[in-house]
Specification:
The protein contains 12 helices and 9 strands. It is of the alpha/beta class and 335 residues long. Helix 6 packs across helix 11.
Length: 335
């Protein structure tokens, strides 16, 4: 009798384990990845690369469908949708993350960063890990980071070669506090608006100019409605691939591994392509716009004009996190 009871219990246990194992397998899911820019941008190519990786490894069940060009809403709307579970993932500028996690604003400190590689190393280290933890506490799960080139200024009126040239220009900026304060500090009138409205605003002269990395200027064909490109290099543009916690919590271990592996592959792909991509795009822009660099002495004046903004946002954050940021940058530059 005891042997029979033991065998029955063992059978029940084995069935339970088999059920658990079955539940750990990849299930039928079609995840929605929405973002504001076009598919042929640097970020859009990264989103497609990530989706292709998931679709290949998902056993025909786990899939990612990309929705570019603001199909599912603008940047700020998409971040809110992630937290609400109506959009599964996005690929977005770290600047937009500020709407939920203010500490991401430290990535927007003007004239602080020097290269894509430096940004990548910073985000791979303790500083980036801290940002990821803070985001997770707010219902957002960043899985990958990369630098995507410097943001530069375009406008329809004149080349900007010195700080005084900024005075009175109406410049569209991201819907992020640092950007608004920076361009107001430089003497222009900052106009925050969703990226999906930018081309029309430039075409109709609602604003005089905008600021973005080369990949966005080319993809959105902003050169059609802007004549001058000034290489202000005011902010090093960083992006992140983010899942919403409501979606992440529904995924089992196997599904999460497929997604994190795909995110790592996309991160490596984009980091490898970043510098080459920016060089090629800048060459294309020089054929359709008047492009000017900023002399080192004038760049120093831009940096001085922006210093109150750097000080403001550094002071508004955890002093230990700010110290970590600058100490990490110092260490990176020594290597």
């Amino acid at each position: 009798m005891r042997i029979k009871t033991f065998l029955t219990a063992a059978a029940i246990l084995a069935a339970g384990l088999a059920c658990s194992a079955a539940e750990a397998q990849v299930r039928e899911r079609n995840l929605r990845l929405g973002f504001a820019v076009n598919l042929d941008t640097f970020q859009g190519r990264g989103a497609k690369y990530f989706a292709d990786q998931v679709n290949e490894k998902g056993q025909g069940k786990l899939k990612v469908t990309v929705f570019p060009a603001g199909t599912l809403g603008g940047d700020v709307q998409t971040v809110a949708a992630l937290r609400g579970g109506t959009v599964d993932a996005t690929l977005i500028a770290t600047s937009i993350m500020v709407s939920v996690v203010k500490e991401f604003g430290l990535m927007d400190l003007p004239f602080v960063f020097e290269s894509n590689a430096e940004t990548a190393k910073l985000l791979d280290g303790p500083f980036g890990k801290k940002l990821t933890e803070l985001a997770a506490d707010k219902g957002l799960m960043p899985l990958a980071y990369w630098g995507a080139g410097f943001r530069n200024l375009t406008n329809s009126k004149m080349p900007v070669t010195k700080v005084e040239d900024m005075k009175g220009l109406k410049i569209r900026v991201l819907q992020a506090p640092t950007y608004i304060d920076l361009f107001n500090a430089l003497g222009s009138n900052a106009v925050p608006m969703p990226f999906t409205e930018v081309y029309t605003a430039l075409e109709q002269k609602t604003v005089d100019g905008q600021e973005n990395p080369a990949t966005t200027i080319v993809s959105a064909k902003l050169y059609e409605v802007q004549k001058f490109l000034s290489l202000t290099q005011h902010i090093q543009f960083a992006s992140t691939l983010v899942f919403g916690k409501p979606t992440w919590d529904k995924l089992n271990a196997d599904e999460r591994k497929i997604i994190t592996d795909a995110a790592a592959a996309a991160q490596a792909y984009l980091r490898d392509a970043a510098d080459k991509d920016e060089t090629e795009l800048m060459a294309r822009l020089k054929s359709s716009m008047t492009v000017n660099e900023i002399a080192p002495a004038e760049k120093a004046r831009f940096r001085a004009a922006a210093k109150p903004v750097v000080d403001k946002y550094a002071a508004a954050n955890d002093p230990d996190l700010v110290k970590l940021l600058f100490s990490e940058l110092e260490q990176i530059r020594k290597k």
